């Protein structure tokens, strides 16, 4: 995908003669349509072009800074005039549109598309002690995150961010604004929830919310995975437990890096109920609970945010240089477990790169994520038998990102996929891997839902106004 991890930015495909002519023509069009734009090279331009992943820098043809649905419509309409044929996109920087308003009668929140998760969580809590399920990083934008999944420390209990979308106002490729929900534009609504970046610009969301519990309990469990056979043994026991026994109220992930390997968790209940819920696992793994803390809702969010600030709004200027990959897999058969454990110990722990792996305990019989029927939304990883773990592989560098970093993560992922058949694994577009070609990207991100997505793309955006290198292709 285009600039990775830029926060709630939309790139609209543009074409043009020369970069200068293109920029001048777009700026002129946008000004005529009264869409606010950044002056090239202005201080706002520099803030708005910032990407979290400093490995993937780029220069747009123009940056529109809409703050209304009409601005978005005007920008998309002009873009679709098609100005030529090479690099450069019109970027819509949406982070000025970040209002969050809870209706305390319906408990439905209206959320503008440029809000970041920490801002959303803070305002929903302030306005009515409400929340919806989403990821941990407060600076992540609500749009890309919720339109393509959104997994975090409430997902085993409450599902993905995408499952809390009740409706959206969407600017389509032809500049029309429509509403999508269970009762309006239902094909679009299905496609948006899993693959939204391909079908339009969401100008406003409606999210359902839940009442936050008065306290939750965070905890850690150190894993004595000091050698490959300990990993094989422990992982085998862990996946058997996850498949049938992990309580819905438990939310857990493995965090592994060069220094430690531990389970981190958040339990919807107090510490004594937590102990009862995890004791069978602790016994199987011969380990104990540590760092158990009963916390109120916002403190628990901060606990896993790894950020000093929670309510993050514009401007935001942090970033790092990294390569990242994902996987979603079934339970691992013995031969795969062995290869994975050997790679972890002999290739990952023994190198000096700055890496981590996060393995979310994602599925199983009591996971709310996989209780949603597999075809209810276009989000592809919902099979209760098949989709057990969600992985993020992450490797950071200072300065130019080196070739060995790509090999390091690609080989690790292959340690899994080489022993699995194609139906047993997929990938998660929110941890997009720009090295996948378009065909493979569509297959692994959308799996059994791809054919229907291509039909809807053909109906709504046959000219591919909303384009990035891994975008859904219209059906022929
Ligand atoms: C530090 C960090 C922590 C993360 N933690 C988690 C986590 O805990 N769980 C998890 O599931 N993911 C996590 N992610 C991944 C995150 O969910 C994705 O990066 C997500 O795509 C970010 O959305 P965005 O809007 O900020 O990004 P952008 O890069 O701006 O957008 C991503 C895609 O969505 C499109 N898009 C953006 N806005 C709109 C809109 N209004 N309408 C239509 N399409 C739109 C863009 O064009 C682009 O294709 C994390 C990422 C980072 C960098
Ligand atoms: C952009 O601004 C910098 C100073 O901030 C200047 O050095 C540079 O020449 C400018 N570039 C263009 C293309 O205007
Ligand atoms: C909309 O954007 C313009 C230009 O950036 C700004 O002057 C104006 O104050 C904004 N309006 C609102 C309501 O934020
Ligand atoms: C979409 O819904 C909003 C309210 O959520 C409403 O104001 C607007 O008129 C609707 N637009 C269309 C095109 O139906
Ligand atoms: C591997 O680690 C486990 C648990 O720490 C330990 O009991 C076992 O002896 C180790 N095995 C080898 C071969 O080092
Ligand atoms: C988990 O799900 C299984 C199968 O539906 C059920 O039998 C079991 O009681 C659940 N366990 C917990 C702890 O909720
Ligand atoms: C913990 O929660 C359980 C279940 O809600 C409740 O029965 C119990 O009394 C609570 N214990 C304490 C110490 O609060
Ligand atoms: C893939 O593996 C699954 C689970 O073991 C099995 O049911 C299925 O038949 C296999 N499919 C192919 C094409 O080998
Ligand atoms: C895309 O990648 C897949 C997997 O690596 C490969 O099999 C396929 O040949 C590639 N397709 C193209 C068109 O390059
Ligand atoms: C815009 O596209 C939508 C979806 O294809 C279609 O229903 C609508 O009629 C189009 N509007 C215009 C003005 O062309």
Automatic annotation (TrEMBL):
Cofactor(s), names only, from the UniProt record: FAD
Matching PANTHER family: BINDING OXIDOREDUCTASE, PUTATIVE (AFU_ORTHOLOGUE AFUA_1G17690)-RELATED, FAD-BINDING PCMH-TYPE DOMAIN-CONTAINING PROTEIN
GO molecular function: FAD binding; oxidoreductase activity
Annotated ranges, domain FAD-binding PCMH-type: 27-212
InterPro entries registered for this protein in UniProt: BBE, FAD-bd_PCMH, FAD-bd_PCMH-like_sf, FAD-bd_PCMH_sub2, FAD-linked_Oxidoreductase, Oxid_FAD_bind_N
One Pfam family hit: FAD_binding_4
Record-stated family: Belongs to the oxygen-dependent FAD-linked oxidoreductase family.
Name the UniProt record assigns to this protein: Reticuline oxidase
Signal peptide: 1-17
Keyword vocabulary terms for this entry: FAD, Flavoprotein, Oxidoreductase, Signal
Keyword Metal-binding annotated: no
């Amino acid at each position: 995908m285009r600039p990775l991890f830029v926060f709630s930015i939309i790139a609209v495909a543009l074409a043009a003669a020369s970069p200068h002519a293109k920029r001048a023509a777009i700026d002129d069009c946008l000004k005529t349509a009264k869409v606010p734009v950044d002056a090239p090279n202005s201080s706002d331009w520099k803030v708005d072009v910032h990407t979290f992943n400093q490995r993937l820098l780029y220069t747009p043809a123009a940056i529109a800074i809409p703050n209304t649905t009409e601005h978005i419509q005007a920008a998309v309409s002009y873009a679709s005039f098609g100005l030529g044929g090479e690099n450069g996109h019109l970027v819509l920087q949406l982070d000025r549109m970040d209002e969050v308003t809870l209706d305390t009668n319906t408990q439905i929140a209206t959320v503008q598309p440029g809000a970041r998760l920490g801002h959303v969580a803070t305002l929903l809590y302030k306005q009515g002690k409400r929340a919806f399920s989403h990821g941990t990083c407060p600076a992540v934008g609500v749009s890309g995150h919720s339109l393509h999944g959104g997994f975090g420390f409430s997902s085993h209990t409450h599902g993905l961010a995408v499952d809390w979308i009740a409706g959206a106002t969407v600017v389509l490729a032809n500049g029309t604004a429509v509403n999508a929900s269970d009762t309006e534009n239902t094909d679009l609504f299905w496609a948006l929830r899993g693959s939204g970046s391909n079908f339009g610009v969401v100008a406003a969301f409606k999210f359902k919310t839940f009442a936050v519990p008065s306290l939750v309990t965070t905890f850690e469990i150190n894993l004595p995975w000091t050698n490959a056979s300990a990993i094989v043994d422990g992982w085998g026991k862990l996946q058997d437990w996850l498949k049938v026994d992990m309580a819905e109220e438990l939310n857990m992930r493995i965090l592994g890096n060069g220094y430690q390997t531990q389970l981190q968790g958040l339990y919807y209940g107090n510490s004594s109920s937590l102990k009862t819920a995890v004791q069978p696992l602790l016994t199987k793994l011969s380990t104990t609970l540590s760092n158990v803390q009963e916390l109120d809702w916002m403190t628990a969010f901060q606990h896993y945010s790894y950020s000093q600030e929670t309510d993050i709004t514009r401007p935001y200027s942090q970033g790092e240089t990294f390569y990242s990959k994902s996987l979603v897999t079934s339970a691992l058969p013995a031969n795969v477990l062995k290869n994975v454990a050997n790679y972890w110990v002999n290739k990952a722990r023994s190198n000096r790169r700055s890496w981590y792996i996060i393995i979310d305990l994602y599925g199983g019989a009591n996971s709310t994520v996989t209780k949603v029927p597999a075809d209810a939304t276009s989000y592809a990883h919902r099979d209760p038998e098949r989709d057990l773990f969600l992985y993020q592989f992450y490797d950071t560098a200072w300065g130019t990102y080196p070739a060995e970093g790509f090999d390091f993560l690609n080989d690790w992922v292959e340690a899994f996929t080489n022993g699995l058949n194609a139906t047993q694994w997929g990938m998660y577009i929110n941890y997009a891997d720009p090295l996948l070609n378009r065909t493979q990207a569509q297959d692994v991100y959308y799996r059994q839902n791809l054919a229907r997505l291509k039909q809807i793309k053909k109906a709504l955006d046959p000219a591919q106004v909303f384009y990035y290198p891994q975008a859904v292709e219209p059906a022929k």
